[in-house]
């Protein structure tokens, strides 16, 4: 091309690129109200955002993919865990994680009940933003994940054969009823013998020897409402309890989970765990919304 053709090409290319940019900008602004869920911003959501910033949560967590990567991304956290779990966790994170075993521990933010409620409202608003699939998957705290499974340290570091003083296995330890049942349920999830975490992931789409337990509460309700369900449970909690003590009452679809009408899940939990422990485990699993 000669100089004149080069100049025309450069001007035309710039004009076309500018036009495309303007069209995309106008289209983005047209969609912003719907994509950002802005119509649902309430005073509680605004207060929750202030709590998020005041406590520098983004120094450890990511939200919409932005922030630090020391702790999990919280973009969709309220869709993965319900308000009861998040409330109990924010009141005392140390009930859910052990610094020595998990190699990290969220500091207690010492939030009031109102601040916790506001923060959960803010995170719930964030979870309904149409982020068009970004981040592309839940960002888990791995610290050395098993290839293909993306298990967290909490799932990997369990030792189901370990016993407490006196020879009593972790799953049979007496529990302190003064503690939060969801926190106790989470501990039991990793400490029962056999450990639940060895076969079940709590991350969406991560299926191990057993199906993922993410969104378990919603899944359980769908099963109960379906005509194929022949069990006795009428509530989500009842279904989870039944699945623990009578795993063959409902067989999760898929040849890797059962055979000849019998679930591969050990049927011994109903005998090895106390009713109180099962209730704690149910409380924890029912918080997976």
TrEMBL record:
Signal peptide: none annotated. The lineage of its organism: Bacteria, Pseudomonadati, Pseudomonadota, Betaproteobacteria, Burkholderiales. This is Nitric oxide reductase NorC subunit apoprotein. Residues 43-127, 180-289 form the Cytochrome c domain. InterPro entries: Cyt_c-like_dom, Cyt_c-like_dom_sf, Cytochrome_c550/c551-like. Gene3D superfamilies: Cytochrome c-like domain (1.10.760.10). It comes from the Bacteria. PROSITE patterns: CYTC. Keywords: Electron transport, Heme, Iron, Metal-binding, Transport. Residues 153-162 have a biased composition (Polar residues). SUPFAM superfamilies: Cytochrome c. The keyword Heme applies. Residues 153-181 are annotated as: Disordered. GO terms for molecular function: electron transfer activity; heme binding; metal ion binding. It comes from Pusillimonas noertemannii.
């Amino acid at each position: 091309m000669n100089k004149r053709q080069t100049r025309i090409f450069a001007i035309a290319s710039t004009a076309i690129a500018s036009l495309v940019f303007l069209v995309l900008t106008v289209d983005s602004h047209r969609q912003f109200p719907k994509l950002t869920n802005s119509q649902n911003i309430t005073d509680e959501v605004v207060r929750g955002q202030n709590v998020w910033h005041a406590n520098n949560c983004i120094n450890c967590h990511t939200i919409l993919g932005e922030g630090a990567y020391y702790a999990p991304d919280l973009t969709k956290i309220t869709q993965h865990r319900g308000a009861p779990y998040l409330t109990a966790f924010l009141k005392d994170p140390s009930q859910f994680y052990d610094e020595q075993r998990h190699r990290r521990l969220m500091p207690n933010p010492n939030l009031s009940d109102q601040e916790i409620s506001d923060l959960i409202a803010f995170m719930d608003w964030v979870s309904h933003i149409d982020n068009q699939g970004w981040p592309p998957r839940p960002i888990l705290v791995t610290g050395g994940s098993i290839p293909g499974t993306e298990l967290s340290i909490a799932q990997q570091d369990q030792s189901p054969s370990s016993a407490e003083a006196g020879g009593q296995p972790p799953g049979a330890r007496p529990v302190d009823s003064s503690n939060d049942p969801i926190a106790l349920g989470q501990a039991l999830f990793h400490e029962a013998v056999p450990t639940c975490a060895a076969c079940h992931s709590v991350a969406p789409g991560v299926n191990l020897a057993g199906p993922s337990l993410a969104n378990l509460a919603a899944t359980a309700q769908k099963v109960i409402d379906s005509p194929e369900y022949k069990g006795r449970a009428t509530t989500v909690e009842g279904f989870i309890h039944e699945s623990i003590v009578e795993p063959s009452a409902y067989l999760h679809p898929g040849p890797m989970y059962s055979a000849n009408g019998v679930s591969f899940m050990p049927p011994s939990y109903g005998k090895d765990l106390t009713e109180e422990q099962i209730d704690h485990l149910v409380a924890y699993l029912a918080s997976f919304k």
